[in-house]
Amino acid sequence: MTAQFASLPTWLDVLPFDSEYAASATPETLIFVDVGGGNGQQCVALQKKYPDLRGRIVLQDRPPILEKAITPDSVERMPYDYLVEQPVKSARAYYFRQILHNHNDETCHRILAAHLPALSPSSVIIIDDKVIPDAKPATGSVEYTAGLSLAMLTMFSALERREGQWRTLLADAGFEIREIRRFTDFGDSVIVAGIKA
Predict the structure, then answer these.
(1) Residues of the chain with pLDDT under 70
(2) pTM (2 decimals)?
(3) What residues are annotated to the active site?
(4) Where are the domains of the chain?
(5) Which residues, in sequence order, are CB contacts of 144 under 8 Å at separation 6+?
(6) What pLDDT, on a 0 to 100 scale, did the predictor assign at position 180?
(7) pLDDT of residue 160
(8) Which fold does the domain 2-195 belong to in CATH?
(9) Which residues contact residue 13 at a Cβ distance below 8 angstroms, ignoring those fewer than 6 apart?
(10) What secondary structure does DSSP assign to 106-174, as a single string?
(11) 75 near 59, Cβ under 8 Å?
């Protein structure tokens, strides 16, 4: 599966993390918290893209998952269940990769509510997930993504969300979307959101 997606663009191709979220960071600054980050491949990708990045990077997941992490010692590993209050406060960015699409709106609200108190006014959540356009263009990639949504609905009572659904979900949880940047024709996107003003 990794080889299949290796040549596709990623969130790091459309979001200049170093200049937007790590500028003026010191070695003590919490710059990136990978929530439910699995083996840490996104932490590794971030460090590879920006080898001179300053600041702390934290990988969070359940203990059995963290035991298999591939991250270097420079990445802090922290056992964490994303349904409980986020213990890392005021990080510049909290990153969620393909987590919210696994859950229905009610569970997503619980996840987001667990993180809202941790954010400072300048913190953001970065959601790396599919965003289906509200206006449906006639393309095979949109039909492919819609098929994924049906599979998610059938298996997990979850779905791939349209842009309007993302906006409503986040607004109802106390966030506002600052921007959405798509990086593939299949709807893969990065959503940047902060605390609702």
Answers:
(1) 1-6, 136-158
(2) 0.88
(3) 101
(4) 2-195
(5) 186
(6) 97
(7) 87
(8) Rossmann fold (3.40.50)
(9) 183
(10) HHHHHHHHHHGGG--TT-EEEEEEEEE-SS--S-HHHHHHHHHHHHHHHHHS--PEEHHHHHHHHHHTT
(11) yes
